[in-house]
Amino acid sequence: xxxxxSNATDEKSFALEICKSTLAYSLAxxxxxxxxxxxxxxxxxxxxxxxxxxxANYALSMIGIDMSEKIEAWIxxxxxxxxxFSESGLMDLVKCFFMETHTIRKCKDDFSAICNLWIxxxxxxxxxxxxxxxxxxxxxxxxxxxxxxxxxxxxxxxxLLADNTGLFKEELEEQLSIIQKKVKYGVPSLTxxxxxxxxxxxxxxxxxxxxxxxxxxxxxxEIITSLQQRKENIEELLNDYPEFFWNRIISxxx
Length: 254
Description:
By secondary structure, the protein is an all-alpha fold. Helix content is 69%, strand content 0%. The protein is built from 15 helices and no strands. The protein has helices spanning 11-20, 23-27, 30-47, 52-61, 65-77, 87-101, 111-119, 124-131, 135-159, 169-185, 190-198, 203-213, 223-229, 231-238, 243-253. α4 packs antiparallel against α9, α7 packs across α9 (135-159) and α9 packs antiparallel against α10 (169-185). The chain is elongated, with a radius of gyration of 23 Å. Mean pLDDT is 89; it is low at 1-9.
């Protein structure tokens, strides 16, 4: 962030200088320019007193300063980098924090359960059968608030670990990376998310192929080799699916 590297004594003037150099300002009318200047001055006031490291970290997280500060305080309060967490325990902690800091728009009473079922690889129909929520609401919650917003939020947490020097920081970053991808794709295993990352993004088929491989812990670096070793079984499985999946698996395996 430019501001974090500035030695300007007049912060407001510097903020206005940045404002006036933007494309938005050059395209704005007089009224819009005034509003833009107010926005930049408000940002300057908000970051005044923060260290350059914090400003840089907050800029990387792509969220507001208030939320960044909440995440940092939460990391410290829960001593995240000084403890070893099980994946399910860390997921529960993150999920509760997300529910405290975000508005749950649909299926509020069952949001936690739906999130768990999504990560288990359940279909919206199966989730509907278990929770009795409207199918359209379930689909909306899974595809938007869980797969996108919660996944993005977990990424923000990882970004804000930058200045932390806890004993288990690296382990936590790795755990959060895996959880983030499981939330994004809605899959229960490392193998399934590796398939979604390296082959095709179809959560249900990724889970079925994982069953064929009979190993839930195959990393992204190992997944292609593992698929090649069971290619005949996988090709047989794909006979019942659209040609796209067959063509994709052929291009990967041969």
